[in-house]
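User: Design a sequence. Structure:
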């Protein structure tokens, strides 16, 4: 059966059930066919290395959707190993089957294809996609997602002249398979900071650098995302102020910035007005908590160009200095100033502040410590001393077909303590459906960390020093915390978030730092709604892939195919 009418079917279902009569409730189906390949001939900077491209492009193509559209992406895996793509920040409402992480989806095997179908339900904003398994993200395969507002929503700023997607990330000049094999040993530091896959301006051997052309007097929306593996960066544009307007699907209180810290996995929109002399100006992204002078890694400072259409010359001053990269207070103060605009509508006309946390009762609290540990002499990353062990069987399948039995042990993971020696575990914890969950992330590393929850936007209520204690709650901002899906955690400090668990499914909670994630800093939150009404959580898609113990290929014992338990 074709999916082509899914959008219309959803509208009809919605109209009947909810009698939505608002004019302009509409959505469209968006179709993409992606060929994902590793191109060994690409020389981005100074050496040829395999780069994961989509339809020959790096970064991959833009997914340009509007709230409630249905996106179909048929992914052909031309790599020589299994692949999954995840949609960072797209909430997959009632539909964790499409989330594209190892716990929800069986991998797309080399040489085969699989079609994701997901709705950008009740969302707007700036997001990214990237490959989620096998350390592929270090080789690219990522790209931008825009979810535009429906026409009926008033956006809290004038329509910009144009929009630019700016994907910035650190990059290793090596074969990703080699990097992956060394991740437990000499992980090292990246070589260069790329802007939309391009080397910094001025890099001696690079032929191409990123450049946006603007017209004097006009205002532009730049959607900046950190698609790197390791470094947070400070982003700034020479001689230009930026107005912060959006982050990962929330409109923020508009604040004027000289520079903006963006952590791994995060996205922001800023407005920039071309109000300077007609010349060329640097767009810079320099790593945080790292001294590129001392380590003599100048190319870790990303550098592109804001080019005025009538620019008469280079006219460039030296690369503008950002704040001291080691000034954590600067970064935290800026983070605390990123607030939710309570009065504006986002995906729906209701003001964002209608759904606020000023008066909620917490149902659950997870106090999580991310750190390193040795398990049997091997370097691993742990959460509460448990290092996530990825199974061949996707957890969501195990949940659906047999209530997890024989695959994972629900709630074995200690959500509030670190009292045991480090060990492996396939951590799946219960999130109470329609409860409020507090999550505290403690960062036991000497480097930045950032954490992401699939399936939700969470309210960022607090940042603090040292170890979190219950008294730390007195410092929370419960008035206008911003809602987003990835939050930074400073070394030796904590960050606290609240999430309203109204989205049943199997949801990944992970470090966005690729090494931390790959070596075990993740878990899954299982949110179950006992109501069997299929209008709640979606059934598996018709093209469901089976793997691990559910693999359909005939087994020697001829075991029967598994049946859903209910
Ligand atoms: C530029 O290319 C030359 C010749 O291939 C090489 O020796 C040199 O190291 C390269 N420089 C940089 C900065 O990559
Ligand atoms: C994205 O979609 C919107 C709404 O359909 C359209 O106005 C805009 O031109 C599109 N942008 C791009 C870059 O395709
Ligand atoms: C693979 O692609 C073909 C079209 O080329 C499509 O008909 C088929 O549904 C895709 N397979 C899956 C599992 O999505
Ligand atoms: C919040 O949104 C409202 C309504 O769109 C807008 O008028 C106001 O300027 C915004 N406030 C801030 C501080 O950005
Ligand atoms: C790196 O060197 C430049 C030029 O000397 C200087 O302006 C900048 O402050 C230095 N950066 C750091 C992090 O020390
Ligand atoms: C937050 O929600 C409560 C209802 O739970 C409401 O009374 C209050 O006005 C809201 N706060 C803001 C700032 O909108
Ligand atoms: C706030 O919470 C209290 C206690 O749960 C409740 O009695 C009160 O009605 C709530 N106020 C609002 C505005 O929701
Ligand atoms: C599924 O497993 C959970 C705990 O793992 C248990 O509480 C629940 O009763 C089980 N449900 C069914 C239908 O077996
Ligand atoms: C966590 O595991 C490490 C390594 O096994 C151990 O040294 C440490 O004591 C453990 N932490 C706690 C609180 O037991
Ligand atoms: C460590 O290795 C031993 C021997 O291979 C094994 O029995 C044990 O389960 C391993 N421990 C962990 C935590 O993996």
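Assistant: Done.
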């Amino acid at each position: 059966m074709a999916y082509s009418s899914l959008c219309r079917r959803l509208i009809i279902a919605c109209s009947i059930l909810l009698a939505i009569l608002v004019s302009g409730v509409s959505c469209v189906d968006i179709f993409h066919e992606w060929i994902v390949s590793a191109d060994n001939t690409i020389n981005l900077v100074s050496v040829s290395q395999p780069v994961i491209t989509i339809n020959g492009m790096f970064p991959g193509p833009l997914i340009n959707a509007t709230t409630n559209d249905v996106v179909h992406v048929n992914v052909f895996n031309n790599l020589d190993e299994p692949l999954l793509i995840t949609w960072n920040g797209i909430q997959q409402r009632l539909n964790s089957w499409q989330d594209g992480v190892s716990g929800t989806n069986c991998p797309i095997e080399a040489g085969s294809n699989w079609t994701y179908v997901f709705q950008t339900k009740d969302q707007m904003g700036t997001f990214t996609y990237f490959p989620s398994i096998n350390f592929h993200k270090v080789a690219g395969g990522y790209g931008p997602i825009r979810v535009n507002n429906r026409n009926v929503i008033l956006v809290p700023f004038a329509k910009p002249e144009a929009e630019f997607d700016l994907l910035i990330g650190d990059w290793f000049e090596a074969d990703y398979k080699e990097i992956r094999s060394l991740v437990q040993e000499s992980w090292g530091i990246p070589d260069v900071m790329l802007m939309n896959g391009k080397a910094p301006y001025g890099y001696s051997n690079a032929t191409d650098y990123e450049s946006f052309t603007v017209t004097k007097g006009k205002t532009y929306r730049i959607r900046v995302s950190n698609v790197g593996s390791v470094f947070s960066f400070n982003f700034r544009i020479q001689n230009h102020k930026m107005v912060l307007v959006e982050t990962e699907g929330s409109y923020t209180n508009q604040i004027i910035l000289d520079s903006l810290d963006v952590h791994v996995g995060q996205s922001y929109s800023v407005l920039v007005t071309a109000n300077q002399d007609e010349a060329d100006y640097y767009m810079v992204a320099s790593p945080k908590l790292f001294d590129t002078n001392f380590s003599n890694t100048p190319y870790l400072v990303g550098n592109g160009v804001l080019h005025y259409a009538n620019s008469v010359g280079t006219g460039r001053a030296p690369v503008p200095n950002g704040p001291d990269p080691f000034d954590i207070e600067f970064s935290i103060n800026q983070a605390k100033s990123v607030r939710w605009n309570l009065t504006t509508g986002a995906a729906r006309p209701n003001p964002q502040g209608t759904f606020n946390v000023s008066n909620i009762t917490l149902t659950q609290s997870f106090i999580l410590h991310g750190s390193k540990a040795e398990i049997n002499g091997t370097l691993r990353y742990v959460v509460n001393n448990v290092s996530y062990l990825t199974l061949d069987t996707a957890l969501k399948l195990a949940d659906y077909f047999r209530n997890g039995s024989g695959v994972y042990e629900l709630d074995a993971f200690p959500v509030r303590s670190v009292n045991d020696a480090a060990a492996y575990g396939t951590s799946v914890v219960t999130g109470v459906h329609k409860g409020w969950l507090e999550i505290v992330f403690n960062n036991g590393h000497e480097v930045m960390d950032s954490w992401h929850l699939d399936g939700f936007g969470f309210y960022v209520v607090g940042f603090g020093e040292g170890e979190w204690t219950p008294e730390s709650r007195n410092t929370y901002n419960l008035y206008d915390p911003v809602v987003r899906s990835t939050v930074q955690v400073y070394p030796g400090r904590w960050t606290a978030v609240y999430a309203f668990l109204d989205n049943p499914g199997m949801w990944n909670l992970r470090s966005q730092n690729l090494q931390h994630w790959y070596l075990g800093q993740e878990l899954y939150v299982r949110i179950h709604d006992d109501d069997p009404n299929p209008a709640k959580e979606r059934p598996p898609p018709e093209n469901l892939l089976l793997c691990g113990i559910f693999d359909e290929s005939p087994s020697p014992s001829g075991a029967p195919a598994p049946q859903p338990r209910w």
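The two ends are 24 Å apart (CA to CA). The pocket of 2-acetamido-2-deoxy-beta-D-glucopyranose (ligand 8) is lined by residues 403-404, 410, 566 (CB under 6 Å).
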